[in-house]
Amino acid sequence: MRNSASALLANAFWTCGVLPAFLVCFGFTGVAHAQFAVCNQTIDAINVSVAKETGGTFGTEGWWTIGANRCVDVIKEELTGRYVYVYATDVFGQPILTGDYEGHDMCIGTRRFSIQGTDSCWQRGYQSVRFRLVDTKEMSRWTFFLKDPDAN
């Protein structure tokens, strides 16, 4: 005796062929690829902002909240430049990308934002913070992993 799921799959397999049966079974609608993903490998939730250069002007965008041991696609389109910049805070707003690293000062907002340009952040009502440079090696897709500072 077959259950209804088995009967549906068998019917799709014999009526339409192997590929349609696979599509019915797994709900395949196409492969989605993250172009720039940030993975949080810390034990706490984090807030992330990203920046990239487009047409000679830097733009920043945020916030994405990423739970512990989770990844989020923050840039959906293919990467066209070599560098992406990342700024991240803990849930209390404290920066978590600390230390001596190459980066660039850019603007962020306190709530969801999309800001063009890096000049006069304070005068425009934004905060100026140092974003960490991520070299994507001119790849069209990249994943950046944020780890606990104490992790080896």
Describe the structure.
This protein is mainly beta. It folds into two domains: 1-31, no CATH class; 36-147, no CATH class. The protein contains two helices and nine strands, in the order ααβββββββββ. The strands form two sheets. Strands 6-8-5-2-3-7 form a six-stranded antiparallel sheet, with no helix packed on it. Strands 4-1-9 form a three-stranded mixed sheet, with no helix packed on it. α1 (4-16) packs antiparallel against α2. The chain is globular. Residues 1-32 have low confidence and may be disordered. It holds the Pfam family DUF1036. Residues 1-34 form the signal peptide. Keywords: Signal. InterPro entries: DUF1036.
Keywords:
14% helix; 9 strands; six-stranded antiparallel β-sheet; 42% strand; globular; mainly beta
- Spell out the helices and strands N to C: HHEEEEEEEEE
Question: Portion of residues in helices?
Answer: 10-25%
Q: State the oligomer.
A: single chain
Poorly predicted runs are 1-32
Main sheet: strands, sense, barrel: 6 strands, antiparallel
Number of domains: 2
Radius of gyration: 21 Å
Q: Helical region count?
A: 2
Strand runs, count: 9
Estimate the mean pLDDT confidence: 82
Q: Order of strands in the sheet with the most strands?
A: 6-8-5-2-3-7
Note the overall shape.
Answer: globular
For the record, give the distance between the C-alpha atoms at the N and C termini, rounded to a whole number.
54 Å
Question: What is the SS-derived class?
Answer: mainly beta
Q: How much of the sequence is in beta strands?
A: 35-45%
InterPro entries: DUF1036
Protein name: DUF1036 domain-containing protein
Pfam families: DUF1036
Signal peptide: 1-34
